[in-house]
Specification:
mainly alpha; 0% strand; 11 helices; MetI-like fold; 71% helix
């Protein structure tokens, strides 16, 4: 005789994305490193604790720079700066982009077409070029201007994606039902539109975080990012280009740190997409 336990459907296995966990591990490592620099670093970041361009040793695990400062300390502080820039730029881009995208989706056809064309033009320009123009217009190069410039540059991408997703949601039957029941457009936005487009936007935010980190390193390399004594990875690479043959660790270490954070962010974004999208889970 067949029992109830024998015919019960098997339990569904919980989907776990390997890329999500690998990306999360890399990003968490940088977050811990950045937070640690707020309370402790191996040496004083501005202190000349050794000779110039010393090789890695027990006292200085990554050697010293051309001024005799501990290079591991500089790399650790670079993690904090990269996280601050990435978080700030994505936050600014999200606020401006989501607002513009929602306005474009609810606007008249003429205004919608004008905003869509403007966004397409802005997206056609490289992010770094737009950030350089904003920093130049601000007439000052510091960490705050770099974050603001990158946020402005990234907002066009967020706005375009928000506009497309919002227009798709507005065609759904439950939006019509909500409006028929008397729900205001503001209520529709917060109760139906934002919860439905947020998963896709979160993946985009993760990818733009990595883009912002690379762009900030490029700005610092060009002298338009965080000024000394801020140990940005881009500035460390710029300082190491003259000693790349005599002290290669100066170029290798910040390069590896930058690559590991960007790869971690990209893997985290891929893992989020795999977790959110049921078709990718099936594959």
């Amino acid at each position: 005789m067949t029992t109830v336990d024998q015919i019960a459907p098997p339990k569904r296995r919980r989907f776990v994305s390997l890329t999500l966990w690998v990306g999360l591990a890399l990003v968490t490592l940088h977050i811990i490193t950045g937070l640690l620099t707020l309370v402790w670093t191996p040496y004083d970041p501005a202190g000349m604790t050794g000779g110039r361009l010393e090789a890695p040793s027990l006292l200085h695990w990554a050697g010293t720079d051309r001024l005799g400062r501990d290079f591991l300390t500089q790399i650790m502080i670079g993690s904090r700066i990269a996280l601050i820039v990435g978080t700030g730029a994505v936050a600014i881009g999200a606020v401006i982009g989501v607002t513009l995208g929602l306005l474009a989706a609810f606007a008249s056809k003429l205004l919608d077409d004008a905003l869509a064309a403007t966004l397409d033009i802005l997206i056609a320009f490289p992010t770094l070029l737009i950030a350089m123009l904003v920093v130049a217009a601000a007439d000052t190069a510091n960490l705050g201007s770099a974050i603001f410039a990158l946020g402005i540059a990234l907002s066009a991408i967020v706005a375009r994606l928000t506009r497309i997703l919002t227009k798709r949601v507005l065609l759904m039957d439950y939006i019509t039902a909500a409006r028929t029941s008397g729900t205001s457009w503001l209520g529709v936005v917060f109760r139906h539109i934002l919860p439905n487009i947020w998963p896709t936007l979160s993946v985009s935010f993760a990818l733009q975080f990595g883009l912002a980190v690379i762009a900030e390193a490029s700005l610092s390399y060009l002298g338009l990012g965080a000024p000394p004594p801020n140990a940005s990875w881009g500035r460390l690479l710029q300082e190491a280009q003259g000693t790349v043959y005599t002290a290669p660790i100066g170029a290798i270490a910040p390069g590896l740190a930058l690559v590991s954070l960007v790869i971690g962010i990209n893997l985290l974004a891929d893992g989020l997409r795999d977790t959110i999208d049921p078709t990718r889970r099936a594959r």
